[in-house]
Design a protein that fits this description.
Layout: H1 24-54, H2 64-75, H3 84-87, H4 90-108, H5 115-150, H6 175-190, H7 199-227, H8 234-266, H9 271-289, H10 292-317, H11 320-323
Helix pairs in contact: 1-4, 1-5, 1-10, 4-5, 5-6, 5-7, 7-8, 8-9, 8-10
């Protein structure tokens, strides 16, 4: 009987780099830098999305392109970055967010739980922690964003929907002074609770969004890995999976995000009252479609860029013992 040669199997490739496989002294600085870069590049889409969601019907902008064009013509490039420095504090919440997500997933890994379920629970917990940190900065940032709708429009500065704090927009003051004035007026109007205005709506919008996005990202990644030839980059597959997950969650949760934006800016009513008002103004289609194109564009860009940065940084931060088993 002829002898057969038995080849030793190749080492098992790692498709998901777990929390305990990484050097955190490399991961956190690189993640912070990546997060800031992505937010800086894509902030104008966030601003446009918020302004479209808060406007009545199409009183100011007809769509994303129209909004970017008009803001640039009226205020220049600085108008597209209104409220950016306050919003950039999201980087701090982002560190809490990703630490919670990876930490919860790591703890759940001790039990026999599906990767999709681990991602779902981890994403939900991460969003709860992140929103608790960031909502005060989000409230102030969105007030500054929406003031751009009122600036330069006759009578708009006295519109309580666009300028609920009654700020004098004709006075020439620096952006930092304007931010301080917004913070003072929020406190004067609502007390300390004003900084957490719309917190419940934020949780209702972002916790399901985050949980679904991570679960769908994991599900799409698994399916794409099965369908894709071996020569296709694993990192590219992950970026596509993240983008598909972003599209899906955006379509499912858009009405909740509109309610959150309205509550944080106008500071009146409850989620139920805002839903009813939106229903009267926009109808069922408007409730789902309002600001959807801006949010889909933002979601696609953010999802692709965040996953590209996140998964690349994980590869750079992986401990040497796992490095040869990580597929790019």
């Amino acid at each position: 009987m002829a002898a057969t040669m038995v080849e030793s199997p190749p080492p098992h490739l790692i498709t998901t780099i777990e929390w305990d496989m990484m050097d955190k002294t490399k991961f956190f600085p690189l993640y912070t830098l990546s997060s800031f870069t992505v937010r800086c590049a894509l902030y104008p889409l966030t601003l446009v999305k918020t302004q479209i969601q808060v406007q009545r019907k199409k009183e100011a902008y007809k769509g994303v392109t129209d909004a970017i064009t008009k803001i640039y013509q009226n205020e220049g490039i600085s108008g597209l970055y209104r409220g950016f420095w306050l919003s950039s504090f999201q980087i701090i919440s982002g560190v809490f967010y990703i630490t919670t997500y990876e930490g919860v997933k790591h703890e759940l890994g001790k039990y026999d739980i599906s990767p999709k379920v681990k991602s779902f629970i981890g994403g939900g917990c991460a969003s709860m922690v992140g929103q608790t940190v960031i909502v005060p900065f989000d409230v102030l940032s969105q007030h500054l964003m929406v003031l751009g709708l009122a600036k330069g429009r006759p009578g708009a500065a006295r519109n309580p929907k666009l300028n609920p704090l009654g700020i004098d927009l004709d006075k020439r003051i620096s952006k930092s002074a304007l931010a301080r004035e917004v913070a003072r007026r929020v406190y004067r109007a609502h007390g300390a609770r004003g900084y957490y205005r719309g917190y419940a709506a934020s949780l209702a919008a972002y916790v399901p969004n985050s949980a679904l996005w991570w679960a769908l990202y994991t599900a799409y990644q698994d399916e794409l890995l099965k369908l894709s030839p071996a020569w296709i980059s694993h990192l590219f597959i992950q970026c596509v999976a993240g983008t598909l997950g972003g599209f899906t969650t955006t379509i499912l949760t858009n009405p909740l995000d509109i309610v959150r934006a309205r509550l944080q800016v106008e500071g009146v009513g409850s989620m139920r009252e805002v839903f009813k008002e939106l229903w009267r103004e926009e109808g069922l289609i408007g409730l789902y479609a309002k600001g959807l194109s801006a949010r889909l564009a933002q979601s696609a860009c953010f999802s692709f860029s965040i996953i590209l940065g996140y998964e690349t940084i994980k590869r750079f931060s992986v401990n040497d013992e796992f490095r040869t088993r990580v597929r790019w």
